[in-house]
Amino acid sequence: MNPEGTVPMTDTSEPIPSGAPDVRRPVAASGSKTAATPVIERQARSVTLENLNAYYGGNLAVHDIDLEFPANQVTAIIGPSGCGKSTMVRCINRMHEEIPGARAEGRIMLDDLDVNGPGVDVVAVRRTIGMVFQKPNPFPTMSIRDNVLAGLRLTGVKAKDADERVEKALRGAGLWEEAKDRLDSPGIGLSGGQQQRLCIARTMAVEPQVVLMDEPCSALDPIATLKIEELIEELKKTVTIVIVTHNMQQAARVADRTAFMLTGGELVEVGPTEKIFTNPDDERTEQYVTGKFG
């Protein structure tokens, strides 16, 4: 299975909502007592990668990455195709390990919690750290309303205020005015850009702390892309966003910080977006952002 084969995991990878049950999973300790495992804090915002390595079988795809994604900022990941951008991002919410033969080493810290630590519930990690994929993937048999509520239902969270949740999520995704009179119509009937915003609404319905976006605009036209970029600017007020993009202009428009990777999974440079694009420290970064290769 290639990374695209993990797309259905979106349905169960929504972030944990505020007020949801404790995500601790009891584990038997020595003796008759049980010990509680680490808790994923509902207010966690920042993500830090420490010595991250990711493999597909024996092939090293991400090499020894140290990288911080600050709270309430947008960090863009740029680099040529095949350099490990998507793999690195999928490691953050532990989707990489779903691919047969794939594994990751190192620490991924959600504030002060290692999401790869012993006893951490992987489902809870994926609830806390949402993901939006390259191609819009609304459930084809579900209405717009049910698509928004799908993340809640699939993770066992009962939404007593379902209508309010739907409206809030669609407003947050900039889709309410376009969809409010057709909530019971199939989500697949929306345009491509609307479908992507519906998928973002589905993620946001359960109030994430971190949202990962893997080339969310690559299949969209310029007008739909602009709407997604405006949405990203609004969303960062409440969540931390990591976006993989091949579009240099998009990175320059939406990102507070930009990280540049090269083939072999090497992190070359990271810094404020303006600096990366105008005065990078590494010559390879300059060559890439000016279009000399890649």
Can you walk me through this structure?
This protein has 294 residues and is α/β, with parallel strands linked by helices. The chain has a domain at 46-137 and 208-289: P-loop containing nucleotide triphosphate hydrolases (Rossmann fold). The protein is built from 10 helices and 12 strands. The strands form 3 sheets. The protein has a 6-stranded mixed sheet with strand order 8-9-10-5-11-12, sandwiched between helices. Strands 4-3-6-7 form a 4-stranded antiparallel sheet, with helices on one face. Strands 1-2 form a two-stranded antiparallel ribbon. Strand 1 and strand 2 (34-35) form a beta hairpin. Helix 3 packs parallel to helix 6 (192-204) and helix 4 (162-172) crosses helix 6. The longest helix has 14 residues, at 222-235. The protein starts with 26 loop residues before the first strand and ends in a 5-residue tail after the last helix.
Instruction: Report the radius of gyration as a whole number of Å.
Output: 19 Å
Give the strand order of the largest sheet, numbering strands 1, 2, ... along the chain.
8-9-10-5-11-12
Q: In sequence order, what are the helices and strands, one letter per element?
A: EEEEEHEEHEHHHHEHEHEEHH
| Proportion in helices | 25-40%
Rounded to the nearest angstrom, the distance between the terminal CA atoms is 26 Å
Quickly count the helices.
10
Uncertain spans: 1-42
CATH topology of the domain at 46-137 and 208-289: Rossmann fold
Mean pLDDT: 84
Number of strands: 12
The helix/strand class is alpha/beta
CATH architecture of the domain at 46-137 and 208-289: 3-Layer(aba) Sandwich
